[in-house]
Design goal:
alpha+beta, five-stranded antiparallel β-sheet, 9 helices, elongated
């Protein structure tokens, strides 16, 4: 038994579905029956496990924890030719943050909770408990490998694996494009009308701001989207009557930044919400 197969069986025993990689860190090609996805692909591409043929097919979807498949004659040729072992993080309920350089590592150390880390050729893999959608280039030098993806197995790593944080999930949330003024800057609006709200009491406004802060604070995922929708709700209720003050906006921005949002994200989300409502 070669070393790659031994590694794969050890991963499978730990309920981590492995697969062989050929030179260049790429999966083996589909078998003749599945070439060009002629078979129609696997019925359920969100879970690990081989397709109906016995060969190492469909890249990450070939990953399996079944030792009978891993040691089968159909897989033997792939293991003999394998250059490395990979695994399907999402199939094991994991997410790998692939940090490709020193700058990406520095960002992660500043912005994210510590977790198990594995050194790579140029950077590090940060491994969290919890699966999510995979995505490439979520920020400079950072890829997310989880569902429907594979990561190269290098070593067990160091440190205690922690739960997948909202800050990582939020990296794939698409925000509306920033709305810029004619001079290219976005500013937090200052009320142009004086006096109190003509249709809401001060108590209602105070309660509304407090509820908005709570909604942001309790966001467990998709923080970018939650912040934008909360800003939209506040402006929908009070954006046209001039009752919002800089103090109210500052409170909302502070709640968003406490969840990991940058000042620029807050300003852009506020500007987008204003533009959507025409206020």
């Amino acid at each position: 038994m070669n070393s790659h197969l031994r590694t794969a069986l050890a991963l499978a025993a730990a309920n981590v579905p492995p697969l062989p990689l050929r030179a260049g860190k790429v999966p083996f090609g589909n078998c003749h029956a599945c070439k060009g996805n002629a078979c129609g692909g696997r019925p359920n591409m969100k879970t690990a496990g081989p397709c109906q043929c016995a060969s190492v097919c469909h890249a990450w979807a070939a990953a399996t924890t079944d030792p009978r498949v891993l040691t089968s004659p159909a897989w033997a040729s792939a293991w003999r030719k394998a250059a490395a072992v990979a695994y399907h993080p999402g199939g094991a309920g994991l997410t790998v943050l692939d940090l490709d350089d020193a700058a990406a590592i520095a960002w992660a150390r500043e912005a994210l909770p510590a977790t198990r880390t594995v050194p790579t050729t140029r950077g590090e893999h940060w491994i969290y408990r919890g699966a999510m959608q995979s995505a490439n280039a979520v920020r400079p030098g950072v890829d997310i490998k989880s569902l429907m993806s594979y990561a190269r197995y290098l070593e067990p790593g160091n440190g205690t694996m922690t739960a997948l944080p909202d800050a990582v999930r939020a990296l794939i949330v698409k925000e509306p494009s920033p709305v810029r003024s004619a001079r290219g800057a976005v500013t937090v609006p200052v009320p142009v009308r004086g006096g109190g709200c003509p249709h809401r009491t001060p108590t209602y406004l105070a309660r509304g701001i407090a509820m908005a802060e709570q909604r942001i604070n309790e966001a467990s995922s998709a923080v970018h989207t939650t912040v934008y929708r909360t800003f939209l709700a506040v402006l929908s209720a009070h954006g046209r009557c001039g009752c919002l003050t800089d103090a109210h906006v500052t409170r909302l921005f502070a709640a968003a930044q406490a969840k990991g949002e940058s000042p620029r994200h807050c300003t852009d989300a506020w500007a987008n919400a204003r533009a959507a409502l025409g206020v």
